[in-house]
């Protein structure tokens, strides 16, 4: 087994390798002066079970192209199996035709991964679980929930309500509420544009409670910030947010700095600099991904990795 890393999230790849006592594979990845990507695998991979770790954020287009080229290099070097490890799957929100003459980009990315030579995909917290059906190769879909649950259990949060910031996240919020033995609520929202949402109403009781907002992804933080504002008006005592992938841009940072969110808990699935004025707790998913990689290599079951604290997403 050999594990290689692109340039998107090398610290995570190093942590994965350290956790399972496997050295990170040697490869050269650099750009030509014209912006094209050059890749060279610096060690023998003939007949090897290979894994390529690449988080396709924040510069998704560049990192995807880099991943395709690395997979092609491994395929031409006669690797026996190539697993694309994507802690964050780019274009996951473009999973359907919701208006005329638009692409289904999540399906296109799946096709390109297979065309490049990937034999298997390992990913985490897809925006829509049906994306697994876009592939004709095996897909192992993990959840950050076990890591999140361990953290919140140590906090010993009392009088807790788990809130989904939209209808799409209700299943995940329900799983959290079951495990944390908390009440469940939902924010009904209306999206005004790609970067703006408007909270409309809260279904459920949050008065005087500690509230945990649960979502899979935030980029502009519009959904979370508006939901937190509405929850504060409903007299929520403390507001925490739990997001698997925090792909924060400049607009998101400004919103979070002026928001009602007391703490944002996320993972290291995507690299992110530290920000002043925003309390962000980053939990590592390296152990979870490393265990999955070990089990895939030995052809063992990964089912138990989907469960956490007696519950499942």
CATH topology of the largest domain: Rossmann fold
Strand sequence of the main sheet, in spatial order? Answer: 10-9-8-11-12-13-14
Q: Which of globular, elongated, flat, extended, rod-shaped describes the shape?
A: globular
Helix content: 25-40%
Q: What would CATH call the architecture of the largest domain?
A: 3-Layer(aba) Sandwich
* Main sheet attributes: strand count, strand direction, barrel closure: 7 strands, mixed
- The CATH C-level class name of the largest domain: Alpha Beta
- Beginning-to-end CA distance, first to last residue: 30 Å
- The low-pLDDT segments are none
Order of helices and strands: EHEEEHEHEEHEHEEEHEHEEHEE
Mean pLDDT, to the nearest integer, reads 91
Beta strands, count: 16
Q: What's the domain count?
A: 2
What percentage of amino acids are in beta strands?
25-35%
Q: Report the structural category.
A: alpha/beta
SS summary, helix count = 8
């Amino acid at each position: 087994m050999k594990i290689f890393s692109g340039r998107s999230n090398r610290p995570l790849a190093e942590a994965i390798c350290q956790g399972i006592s496997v050295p990170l594979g040697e490869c050269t990845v650099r750009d030509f002066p014209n912006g094209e990507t050059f890749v060279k695998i610096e060690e023998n991979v003939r007949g090897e079970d290979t894994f390529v770790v690449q988080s396709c954020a924040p510069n998704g287009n560049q990192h995807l192209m880099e991943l395709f080229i690395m997979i092609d290099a491994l395929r031409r070097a006669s690797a026996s199996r190539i697993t694309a490890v994507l802690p964050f799957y780019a274009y996951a929100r473009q999973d359907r035709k919701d208006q005329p003459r638009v692409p289904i980009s999540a399906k296109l990315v799946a096709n390109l991964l297979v065309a490049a030579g990937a034999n298997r995909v390992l990913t985490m917290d897809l925006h829509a679980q049906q994306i697994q059906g876009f592939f004709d190769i095996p897909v192992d879909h993990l959840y950050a929930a076990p890591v999140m649950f361990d953290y919140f259990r140590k906090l010993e949060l009392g009088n807790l309500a788990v809130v989904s910031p939209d209808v799409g996240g209700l299943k995940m919020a329900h799983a959290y509420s079951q495990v944390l033995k908390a009440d469940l609520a939902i924010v009904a929202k209306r999206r005004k544009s790609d970067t703006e949402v408007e909270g409309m109403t809260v279904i459920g009781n949050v008065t005087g409670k500690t509230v945990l907002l649960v979502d899979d992804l935030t980029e502009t933080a519009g959904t979370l910030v508006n939901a937190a504002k509405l929850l504060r008006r409903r007299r929520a005592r403390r507001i925490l947010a739990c997001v698997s992938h925090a792909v924060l841009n400049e607009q998101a940072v400004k919103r979070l700095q002026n928001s009602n969110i007391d703490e944002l808990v996320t993972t290291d699935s995507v690299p992110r600099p530290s920000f002043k004025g925003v309390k962000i707790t980053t939990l590592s998913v390296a152990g979870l991904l490393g265990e999955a990689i070990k089990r895939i290599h030995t052809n063992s079951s990964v089912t138990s990795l989907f469960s956490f604290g007696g519950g499942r997403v």
